[in-house]
Design brief:
Length: 191
């Protein structure tokens, strides 16, 4: 982790034609949406909030995109956290229930959600290399929380096929992910 602190997100002297904003979006969007959703509990609002953050950074001068990767990553997560907490405060004012907000705002809870979003991001990256059937079953069962019967109905396959694909995907993910990340993923999907 220490080596990454001085790593530039996009080297300033590169002749690359890649759009730095697009690269940031593809790298962090799913992680940030998951992170926000864990704080506010609503996928649609989380996606809107993350979109607002990306709209904001789209107005950055180009030189800001050539900062250290750790700085940009921290900025994105902090901005999404603040937008999520502000949205939650707005929801709480309407509900007039500040006790729940105080529990959610605790730093340990936010750190826990940050770790979850990082793990889910790594799982999404590893899932890109899974065969299509395994990837679809994994997304529906583990990331969207659907049971075997629901997944089977959605995909038009048998429950046994879903079970087989889930086992196969876990074996493949275990090979692709760092052991600590894989174990954390197992804990998250069994909670």
């Amino acid at each position: 982790m220490e080596d990454n602190k001085k790593h530039k997100m996009f080297p300033a002297n590169t002749n690359s034609k890649k759009d730095p904003l697009k690269e940031l979006f593809y790298t962090y969007h799913k992680k940030l949406v998951y992170f926000s959703m864990r704080i506010i509990g609503d996928q649609s609002i989380a996606e809107d909030l993350v979109q607002e953050v990306f709209i904001h950074i789209s107005q950055w001068p180009e030189s800001n995109f050539y900062r250290e990767a750790e700085y940009i990553r921290n900025y994105l997560f902090k901005a999404v956290k603040n937008k999520s907490l502000n949205a939650l405060k707005g929801q709480q004012k309407m509900k007039d229930n500040s006790d729940e907000l105080n529990d959610i705002v605790q730093d340990t809870t936010v750190l826990h959600h940050l770790i979850q979003s990082e793990v889910i991001g790594m799982v999404y990256e590893a899932m890109e290399s899974l065969p299509e059937g395994c990837r679809t079953v994994t997304e529906l069962a583990y990331l969207e929380g659907k049971n075997n019967k629901e997944v089977a109905e959605i995909l038009g396959v048998t429950v046994n096929t879903v079970k087989t694909q889930k086992q196969r995907s876990l074996k493949l993910l275990r090979l692709k992910l760092d052991p600590e990340v894989f174990m954390t993923f197992l804990v998250l999907i069994n909670c």
